[in-house]
Amino acid sequence: MAELTAEKKVFDAHSEICGCDHEHDHEAGGAGHSRSLGRLSIALVGGFFVLNSYILRWMQPDQAFTSELSAIFGAVILALPIFIVAFKDLAKGKVYMNELVALAVLAALAGGDFRTAGIICFFLLIAIIIESRTAHGAQRSIEELIKLTPRSARKISDGQESDVDVLSLTIGDIIRIRPGENFPVDGSIVKGSSTVNQASITGESFPIDKEEGNDVFAGTQNLTGVIDINVTKVGKDTTLGKVKDMILAAETTKPPIVRVIDQYAGYYTPTILMIAGLTWWFSGGNMTNVISVLVASCPCALVLAAPSAVVAALAAAARLGILIKNVSYLELAAKVRAVIFDKTGTLTEGTLSVVRLAPAEGIQPADLLQIAASIESHSNHPTAIALQNLAKEAKLKITEVDKFSEVHGKGVEGLLDGKKSMIGRAEWLKSHSINISSLETPDADGGSAMSVVYVASQGKALGWIGFRDTVRKEAADAIKSLKEDGIKHCAMVTGDRKEVADLVSKELGIESVRSECLPDDKVAYVKEIKHNYTVAVVGDGINDAPALAAGDLGIAMGAIGSDIAINSASIALMTNDLRRIPLLIVLSRQSGKIIKQNLLIGFVFIVGGISLSVFGMLPPIIAAALHTVSTTIVLFNSARLVRTGEELTMYETHQEVEEK
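RE: above sequence
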């Protein structure tokens, strides 16, 4: 119930600003949709009676009483929802747009112009329906997220399957997921392998292969294999639960421009009533002009200018795997002129890979790799994992090693085909009287920027292997896009050695580099740059929390499944795709432009409508129609933001298909 209360606050807050008939049911499964259908039914039934009145007056002029009666029925049916909400507002001691509309309709009814009253109400109800189904992104987002999680699960207990309620699952339970089903909780695969669609969480356009030991997340879809998972997180603690909470948190916040509107909203209704009074006075009591003023003054388009754009931007960001905690961060992203990147795990993969095989004379590179991977087959060291991965890619056979032993920080050794083989640091091999002077010197081939291990067998050096943290393939494109988007200062800070940092920065085109930095040094550099620019700091959210907090905007990479990453930054990227960062800045700037366009549209329609109404140049029916038109234009203008980033996701899909 706490979640529903929080969600209700989102819509109550919006209703207080806009004043429309925005009552929302917060049950899952489309209650908001049912309410919209109810309003549409009222609009259609009432509209039928009003239309029937016009038809009777035109086709059967002698049926004046029947025509008027039909108009009365239609006007009452259409006006009733507006009057009910207006009375509710007055009972709370608040005056919003509903009261302006109710006064306009009441004036038309009092003047006996039932057809005009009915048409005004019809247009206003249609505007409300469009708004309620378009502007309120949070309710639909939450409903869609709820639909992603199954209500039941197949629990494995004593080798038997049994259907249980998802809410009854606890950490440590084993559940079975079949092809085509969604994961109800976060977990780790303990049996089987499959392909998983994670687009709902990460925005990734292509499914990911999963095997034993890999993590899976609630709301994602199992595509191909039957797998058993060990439950690691349930309910609100799941990644999907955190995404849901972040959507709610983002939509309860307001951008500065909305706060300005809030500040002056209380003066709006009294001002309009004063203008309506003056219109009545100077027009000699002409109520038609007064009704037009009240209808034209309905500020739906103006008030929806910012919220509708923000909702559309948040929806686009969420689709791309960009989670924004507070909409003020969305506005701030447009002002960013400096981006500071961490290196390891951000600009680079954060895992070692083999970049150089330097065998001794007479030794083939494949043989050197096969021997090294075999010796390291029992180690979990990053270099061992890199060797095994490369050997697997090269389809090399791993030979079983006997009497394996690992000397921490130095290397490993064992018997390979009965021969004592070693792989490790140069100093360690030298301490065992192994001569490596005949080998190529690593420094001659950029070795200062590599981690190097030497391989030996039977006391003879076989060569050396160079490792390096691989730069992300999309990093260079992301840096280039940022510079094209007007970012003045791109920098990299890292605790790694200067040689390594310089090599990465040169490859990516980053001019400013700070190497061998402690966490405090990173924070100091961020504060230094903040003197001249609005700064965004990008890191993995684990060891970069101080720097992320120090920047104007903190962006955590690869936040899927990471509580630390989600909690430490202003914005969380659910993938490690750096191209999301320039896309975020583009989305921020576009949303700012859309908000300004919407405000201009709303201002022109309201001021223009009131001005024409004061001088009797705008009939009430046309004023109501213009109100609906202005609201629709604003909402559809905002909806353009939802498609932001489509070209990137389409490109990613194309690239993934080609790679497959």
